């Protein structure tokens, strides 16, 4: 009798969990350059909430999923000291390389998953449990096991400390000419959706639960994140440009259908604001391409010869942009809450 052995792959492949683990400072420098930079007004919204609903103290902030520290650096303007934590050691090394030495002296970098930040002095005690005034989760929450992570965040914050979770999605072209905008936005969506199909299959792979969790969060505009009223107060959910999906591509790019989930509690406030000048920037076709390269870090090798379709799409976009730049804004969701 003969027997056969089936070798199955158990590798979990997801962007920004496994996808960016081996990347060096050059990758993270390009990452920062390719991403939208939150406006100073955005940080003022967070501070305003912290001053009016929280304890208003500005001794210590913690930036979870800090990557190369791009947001930790911004927080140093408002806080005396900032902790930046991440699972990715290379990203933390890049933060040390990219942030100016005079600022690094006010930064503590901690390698840890968000979910275990409150365990066994993972964070040094002087900046650890019960010491954090503001805890920020920037462009990272869909990657986390949220109930476990929230439990850790609650332990890190002081009473009256503020939790700020946010996520931005695709660029929205806003030239003032509706017909032109529709065309530019459709061209972006076509390229992004095609790129997502290169990453398939998601369903049936070890990484599927991660993809499903991330897609559910974005399809839900983060309303799937429950902030139980026994632990969190003054919950405000800002949604800028909520008429545009937070997903980076259309549902046709997936091989499953993410279901929106709403776990908002009674007493929370949701503020929907259509503001096509929010985080405004001017992007050309190359800038869009850089953004896509950063959102889908490993797509080029997976695309093989089909990469030509992406290049053609980018050239079509370039032509529609007349070879130049156009204004872009973003859908952004920010959840603010105070630790009780
Ligand atoms: C898209 S980057 C965001 C970087 C930066 N916060 C920003 O706003 O640009 C996502 C980051 O989350 C980190 N990450 C992924 N899973 C994580 C986890 N379970 N705990 C902590 N960080 C995690 C990744 O290593 C990566 O640096």
UniProtKB/TrEMBL annotation:
Q: Where is the Methyltransferase type domain?
A: 63-163
Tell me which InterPro entries the record gives: Diverse_substrate_MTase, Methyltransf_12, SAM-dependent_MTases_sf
Q: Which key words are in the record?
A: Methyltransferase, Transferase
Do you know which Gene3D superfamilies this protein is assigned to?
Vaccinia Virus protein VP39
Its GO biological process annotations read: methylation
Among the GO molecular function terms of this UniProt record, one is: methyltransferase activity
Tell me the SUPFAM superfamilies matching this sequence: S-adenosyl-L-methionine-dependent methyltransferases
Pfam families in the cross-refs: Methyltransf_12 (PF08242)
Protein name stated in the entry = Methyltransferase type 12 domain-containing protein
Q: Which organism is it from?
A: Dichotomopilus funicola
């Amino acid at each position: 009798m003969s027997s056969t052995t089936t070798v199955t792959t158990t590798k979990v492949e997801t962007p920004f969990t496994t996808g960016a683990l081996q990347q060096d400072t050059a990758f993270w420098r390009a990452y920062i350059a390719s991403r939208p930079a939150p406006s100073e007004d955005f940080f003022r919204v967070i501070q305003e909430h912290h001053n009016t609903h929280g304890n208003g103290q500005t001794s210590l902030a913690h930036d979870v999923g800090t990557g190369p520290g791009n947001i930790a650096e911004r927080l140093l303007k408002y806080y005396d000291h900032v902790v930046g934590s991440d699972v990715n050691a290379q990203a933390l090394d890049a933060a040390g390389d990219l942030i100016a030495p005079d600022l690094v002296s006010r930064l503590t970098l901690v390698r840890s998953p968000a979910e275990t930040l409150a365990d066994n002095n993972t964070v040094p005690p002087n900046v650890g449990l019960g010491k954090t005034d503001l805890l920020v989760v920037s462009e990272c929450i869909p990657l986390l096991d949220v109930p476990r992570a929230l439990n850790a965040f609650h332990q890190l914050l002081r009473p009256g400390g503020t939790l700020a979770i946010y996520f931005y999605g695709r660029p929205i072209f806003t030239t003032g000419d509706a017909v032109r905008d529709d065309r530019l936005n459709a061209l972006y969506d076509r390229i992004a959706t095609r790129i997502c199909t290169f990453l398939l299959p998601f369903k049936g792979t070890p990484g599927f639960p991660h993809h499903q969790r991330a897609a559910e969060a974005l399809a839900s505009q983060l309303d799937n994140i429950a902030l139980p009223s026994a632990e969190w107060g003054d919950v405000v959910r800002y949604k800028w440009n909520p008429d545009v999906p937070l997903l980076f591509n259309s549902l046709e790019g997936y091989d499953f259908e993410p279901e929106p989930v709403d776990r908002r509690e009674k007493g929370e406030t949701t503020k929907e604001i259509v503001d096509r000048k929010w985080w405004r920037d001017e992007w050309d076709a190359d800038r869009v391409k850089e953004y896509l390269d950063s959102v889908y870090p490993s797509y080029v090798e997976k695309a093989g010869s089909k990469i030509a379709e992406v290049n053609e799409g980018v050239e079509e976009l370039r032509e529609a942009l007349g070879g130049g730049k156009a204004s872009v804004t973003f859908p952004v969701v920010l959840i603010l809450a105070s630790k009780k």
